[in-house]
Amino acid sequence: MRGLKLKKEQYLRRRKRSKKSFPVEGEYRLCVYKSARHIEAQIIDDFNQTTLVAASSKEKAYTKEKVNKSELASLVGKSLSERAKAKKVKKVYFDRNGFRYHGRVKSFAEASRKGGLKF
After folding, report:
1. Domain range spanning residue 30?
2. Which of 24, 40, 60, 82 has its CA 20 to 30 A from that of 74?
3. At what angle do helices 104-114 and 69-86 cross, to 10 degrees?
4. Is residue 119 part of a domain?
5. Is residue 8 situated within a structural domain?
6. Given a cut of 90, is residue 105 above it in pLDDT?
7. Within a 10 A sphere around the Cβ of 92, how many other Cβ atoms?
8. What is the per-residue pLDDT for 35?
9. 108 Cβ partners below 8 Å, 6+ apart?
10. How many whole angstroms separate alpha carbon 48 and alpha carbon 24?
């Protein structure tokens, strides 16, 4: 039981650390969330408190594809970067949201960098 509590504490500590910086006008944050099955991401303007672009593996385009979760994360990263290009967003700050940078989060980040986002 102690192991689960320790993991939760470490997750919350990492999440709190990524939320420390204050928003500046004209700077956007790329926030990633992953569950056991899906991955979601948003580009957020913290200064105006609005979501500019969002992408998720729950969209109908991805629910019919038979790929593993890492490949699905890279597809979502690619589509998010294409949507960001349409909104003329080029530079963002990557918010892992407390998740470690490996596996699906890493494949998502690499795909969005290939798509043209800089962070």
Report:
1. 2-114
2. 24
3. 30
4. no
5. yes
6. yes
7. 22
8. 95
9. 32, 39, 41, 73, 74, 76, 77
10. 10
Q: Residue 2 in 3-state DSSP?
A: helix
Which pLDDT value is given to residue 64? 78
- CATH at 42: 3.30.420.100
Total domains, the chain: 1
Q: Sign of torsion, CA 32 69 105 100?
A: positive
Q: How far apart are CA 1 and CA 96, in angstroms?
A: 26
CA distances from 40 to 6, 59, 114 (A): 25, 10, 18
Q: How, if at all, do strands 28-34 and 92-95 pair?
A: parallel
Residue 10 counted as domain residue: yes
Residue 81 lies in a domain: yes
Span 18-42, average pLDDT: 87
Per residue in 50-96, pLDDT (tens digit) is 999 999 999 998 877 789 999 999 999 999 999 999 999 999 999 98
Amino acid making up residue 22: F
Reported confidence tier of residue 4, pLDDT bands at 50, 70, 90: confident
